[in-house]
Amino acid sequence: MAQHKTAWNRSKINVNDCANFLDMMPIQDLLNRIRWDKAFGRADFRIGYYDRIQHSLVLKALVDIRFPEDSHNVFEWNDSEGETHTIPLHRIKAVYRNGELIWRRTH
User: Fold this and answer.
1) Which of these, 1, 61, 70, 99, is most buried using a 10 Å CB contact count?
2) How far apart are CA 92 and CA 51, in angstroms?
3) CA dist 48 → 13, 26, 31, 61, 106 (Å)
């Protein structure tokens, strides 16, 4: 029960005042806030994930990716040839909101 209270309190955080706290927030919590907090989610979000083939950070617009209902630990996107790429959430290394870094994973 206390865990739900903590998650609720996180949803009330002002991103401009507490960017360091968002660094500690689990990525699933941040993605849920973007989805359910209409005021916060009304922005241009980009997800940066580590691509193991390119060995670099790849940025994708949040509007171009989807989260399968049957798997809560991945996201997917389609390339220009229609191929679906499935990326585990643990490979997300950065989240940008309106061009500003609001979340990062250093490991």
Assistant:
1) 61
2) 9
3) 22, 15, 13, 9, 12
Q: Which residues pair with 47 in a beta bridge?
A: 60, 95
For the chain, list residues with pLDDT below 70.
Answer: 1-23
pTM (2 d.p.)? 0.76
SS3 84: strand
Under DSSP, the state recorded for 66 is B
Closest C-alpha to 77, from 42, 39, 51: 51
Asked whether the beta carbons of 29 and 92 are under 8 A apart, the reply is no
Q: Is the dihedral of CA 37, 15, 97, 3 positive or negative?
A: negative
* Whole-angstrom distance, CA of residue 43 vs CA of residue 63: 10
pLDDT of amino acid 25: 87
